[in-house]
């Protein structure tokens, strides 16, 4: 997740697109343009709330659609997450004539899939994948039923089959040689009945490794790490930015941009502890501090007033809110 932006977002009109800059967050952009994070994700075909600098976002509804309707063909430039295969990230071009490409070639990269094992939940999977539970919830039709073993759920596209975007001058033979597969295998994998390719065409690569789901108990890298501060005792009973009174016994924190009622997981190494907490306030108060935390959170993490080691933060659930 990119850092918090202090600069206002200026959407273009009537073209209504915005180019992501260093420090932007999806939450900040959504607030500036007056829509929910979920709506902005729908308009841009986003699987989760992570952004890439230079990415183009649609910040107004597509022509002729309602504000809550996703566009049939998102206008964003597809970002390349770290797990994306190298061939796709280097020099991929836009098709010169998309009408010449089959539907499967014009389609976005396919979603990943995971077969549920005993004990799997959206929260657990989100921590292992480095995404958020609300993203998985949305990808899977907002299901509220328990995830039973053997069930297949959708994962963000970076966990889908590796793909290659055809560049100018490439052929089936050169691509097959690049990946060490046969032309026949490449054609069968992509249901091709011709050797002709077009720049920008997307091919699935047979036998290539894909990003994998970490085993239970192994979390992805944290979204951010830093020192936290404990709310002063004098703040007890005061109203926070969300309108909720601060109670030192509640598991609550401040955050500069996450919507109120979002859930984060905080963990410390010395001592090794972790706890979930809910965002109810804006902050932190001090410079150089990641979050303000309640007494309950500090106690659960084993933090003292004088010695506060580095704490890791992972965003678990982003509330559907414009605050």
**CATH architecture classification of the largest domain:** Roll
Number of helices: 9
| Strand segment tally | 13
CATH fourth-tier homologous superfamily of the largest domain: LysM domain
Protein model, in words:
The protein is an alpha+beta fold and 323 residues long. It has three domains: 1-79, LysM domain (Membrane-bound Lytic Murein Transglycosylase D, Chain A, Roll); 86-204, Membrane-bound Lytic Murein Transglycosylase D, Chain A, CATH 3.10.350.10; 224-317, RlpA-like domain (Barwin-like endoglucanases, Beta Barrel). Helices cover 19% and strands 17% of the residues. It is built from nine helices and 13 strands. It has helices at 26-33, 37-44, 86-89, 103-106, 122-129, 133-139, 172-179, 183-189, 295-301, and strands at 17-19, 56-58, 112-115, 152-155, 163-165, 202-204, 224-226, 228-230, 252-254, 263-268, 273-281, 291-293, 311-317. It has a five-stranded mixed sheet. Strands 1-2 form a two-stranded antiparallel sheet. Strand 10 (263-268) and strand 11 form a beta hairpin. Helix 5 crosses helix 6. The two termini are 18 Å apart. Mean pLDDT is 78; it is low at 1-14 and 64-100.
In short:
The protein is α+β, with helices and mostly antiparallel strands and 323 residues long. The chain has nine helices and 13 strands. The chain starts with 16 loop residues before the first strand and ends in a 6-residue tail after the last strand.
């Amino acid at each position: 997740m990119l850092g918090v932006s202090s600069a206002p977002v200026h959407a273009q009109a009537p073209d209504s697109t915005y180019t992501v800059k260093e420090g932007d967050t999806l939450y900040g952009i959504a607030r500036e343009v007056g829509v929910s994070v979920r709506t902005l994700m729908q308009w841009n075909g986003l699987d989760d709330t992570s952004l890439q600098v230079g990415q183009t976002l649609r910040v107004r509804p597509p022509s002729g659609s309602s504000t809550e309707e996703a566009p049939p063909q998102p206008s964003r430039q597809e970002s390349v997450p770290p797990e994306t295969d190298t061939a796709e990230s280097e020099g991929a071009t836009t098709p010169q004539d998309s009408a010449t490409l089959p539907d499967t070639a014009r389609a976005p990269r396919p979603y990943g899939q995971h077969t549920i094992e005993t004990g799997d939940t959206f929260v657990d999977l989100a921590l292992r994948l480095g995404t958020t539970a609300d993203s998985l919830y949305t990808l899977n039709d907002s299901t509220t039923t328990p995830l039973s073993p053997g069930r297949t759920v959708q994962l963000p596209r970076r966990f889908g089959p590796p793909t290659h975007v055809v560049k100018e001058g490439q052929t089936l033979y050169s691509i097959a040689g690049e990946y060490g597969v046969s032309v026949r295998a490449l054609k069968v994998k992509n249901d091709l009945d011709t050797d002709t390719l077009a720049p920008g065409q997307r091919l699935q690569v047979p036998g290539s490794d894909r990003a994998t789901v970490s085993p239970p108990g192994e979390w992805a890298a944290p979204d951010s790490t830093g020192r936290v501060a404990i709310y002063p005792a004098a703040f007890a009973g005061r109203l926070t930015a969300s309108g909720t009174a601060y109670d030192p016994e509640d598991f609550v924190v401040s955050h500069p941009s996450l919507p109120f009622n979002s859930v984060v997981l905080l963990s410390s190494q010395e001592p090794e502890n972790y706890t979930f907490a809910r965002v109810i306030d804006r902050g932190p108060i001090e410079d150089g501090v990641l979050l303000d935390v309640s007494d309950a959170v500090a106690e659960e993490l084993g933090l003292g007033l004088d010695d506060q080691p580095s704490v890791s933060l992972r965003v678990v659930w982003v509330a559907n809110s414009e605050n």
